[in-house]
Structure formats: C-alpha cells, structure tokens
Automatic annotation (TrEMBL):
Keywords: Metal-binding. The lineage of its organism: Bacteria, Bacillati, Bacillota, Clostridia, Candidatus Fimenecus. Residues 10-150 form the HpcH/HpaI aldolase/citrate lyase domain. This is Aldolase. GO terms for molecular function: catalytic activity; metal ion binding.
C-alpha cells in the first residue's frame, strides 16, 4: 500500500494544490504549549495557526483528510477538541503526552466524533507504551522523532532510526494493530546527507503507512512566486510515488543493506555535528 502523505499548512489555497497533487492528508498544527522552549535554537518551524483555520480548510478540501494537532492536555483541551470536531477535523492528534491517563482523557474528550492519533515524542510515553496502547479508542499512532530525539538527548533526530528505537516502537504499534508512521521526509532526487530514498525504504521495511512531507519537500514560505507551486507539488508527489514503487520491490536483503547504509550515514552526520560543536 502507498504511504499516506501528509502536508502541513493552514493556507486553504496551498491545501487545495497539495490535495490536487495527490497529498492524502492536510495537517493543521495548533500546538504551541512548550514547543518553543523544547526546540529553542533548532532549525524548526513553530506554527502559529488558529482554531478558525479548521473550518477554512474543511470548506475547500474534497478528497484529502484533515488532521488537526491540538496542544498537549491542559485546561483548554476540551474547547480545542470540541471546536476541531465541530468544524470538520477528520483526525485529532495528541502531542507530547507522557502517561496512559493523559491518553485516556484525550480519547474521552474526542468522544468518538473524530479519529484519534497519538504522537509519541516523549521517552516517558515510550517507556509506558503497552499501558498506553491498551487504552480503548486509539485509532492510529505516529512517532515524532524531532522532540523524541531531544528527550533522549541525541545529537541528530535520525539516530532513533539508526539505533533501533523507531523499529521497536513500530513493532509495538503493529502488535496492537494500529496504523502508524514516523517522522517526515523530503523530496527524492535532492542532494542531502540522508536522502529521502533511504528514509522511504525504511518506512517500507518497518511497515509504516504514513509520513509527513517535510519543509524540505516544498517550503512555500520561501517562494517569491507561487505560479509554479501546483506543478512543483505534482512533481514532488510523483517523485515520492516512483520511489515507493522501488521500495516496495526491495528484497529483505536489500532492506537490510539500506538500513546498514542509513546507520553509516547517520554515524557520519553525528560525528560531523559533534566536531562542529567542539570547534564552535
């Protein structure tokens, strides 16, 4: 089965272009609580979207699902989830939880009105994964390797893919019969240290069913002219799908070889980052 491709945006025009290009799910990010402090001095984007964006996106989407990542549980969670459900979210994602109690409360707040997705991104949640996944009412799960690598005090987020952490969590998701995915991916064919082709092959090796198209896939914020955006999205999605066909045809031996290559690339990236820190 092809991966479910998710793209983060609050812009209805961009969402429609992504949908028409074959993106399966539009991802609206409302999470702000604690995020800036956790990701301080990192090359990440903190979204400043609004609950009002749910209805705006719902009004223009005809095929793609709408996933809304709300804040981690707090006094305003009920109002957030109620509004997201009322305004047309298909899936609501809970980030940065640590306990089964939080997950149970989240599921209760959703009350069957939307599908529920858990974003595993704390070591505490991983440590209690059996208890958490035993909570009734969980529909799917995703591994947030950015915050999770910070929680484990790793140098580079894809260390979790190289050291077996992502694999262990994925096996647990599969054990409990949940659809799952992890992290994000850029565009195949681009010259980066850890190519998208390698990451996509890992998704197939681990039985992942979904992935977020990263900022590197199509960074709309850096485009001075959006006239070519539709074609750019289409080309990007075609590149991912073509790469997936190759990944689906890999033998078990080829999958193992790709994983070994990912481990070596990650090792070199970590060494480079650590050396730069020592010099800096």
């Amino acid at each position: 089965m092809p991966l479910k491709l998710m793209y983060l945006t609050s812009d209805p025009t961009v969402a429609v272009l992504a949908e028409r290009a074959g993106v399966d799910r539009i991802f609206l990010d409302l999470e702000l609580r604690g995020k800036e402090a956790r990701q301080k001095n990192m090359d990440t984007v903190i979204s400043h979207n609004s609950l009002s964006d749910v209805a705006k996106l719902r009004a223009v989407l005809t095929k793609a699902e709408l996933l809304v990542r709300v804040n981690s549980l707090y006094d305003g969670s009920k109002a957030e989830i109620d509004r997201a459900a009322r305004d047309g979210a298909d899936v609501v994602m809970l980030p940065y939880f640590k306990t089964a109690r939080e997950v149970s409360d989240f599921v209760s707040l959703c009350a069957g009105r939307v599908r529920t997705c858990l974003l595993f991104e704390t070591p505490q949640a991983v440590e209690q994964i059996d208890e958490i996944l035993s909570v009734p009412g969980i529909d799917e799960a995703h591994i947030g390797i950015n915050d999770l690598h910070l929680g484990y005090k790793k140098t580079f987020m894809f260390e979790l893919l190289a050291d077996g952490t992502v694999e262990r969590i994925c096996r647990k998701f599969a054990e409990y019969g949940l659809p799952y995915g992890f992290g994000g991916v850029g565009r195949p064919g681009t010259q980066v240290a850890l190519p998208a082709e390698r990451i996509l092959a890992e998704h197939y090796r681990l039985g992942s069913g979904q992935v977020i198209l990263s900022r590197a896939f199509c960074d709309v914020s850096k485009l001075a002219d959006r006239s070519g955006l539709a074609a750019d999205f289409q080309a990007g999605v075609r590149a991912v799908r073509a790469c997936e066909e190759k990944c689906a045809a890999l033998s078990e031996q080829e999958q193992r070889e790709n994983h070994a290559a990912v481990q070596e690339i990650v090792r070199m990236i970590v060494e480079k980052i650590q050396a730069a820190k020592e010099l800096g």
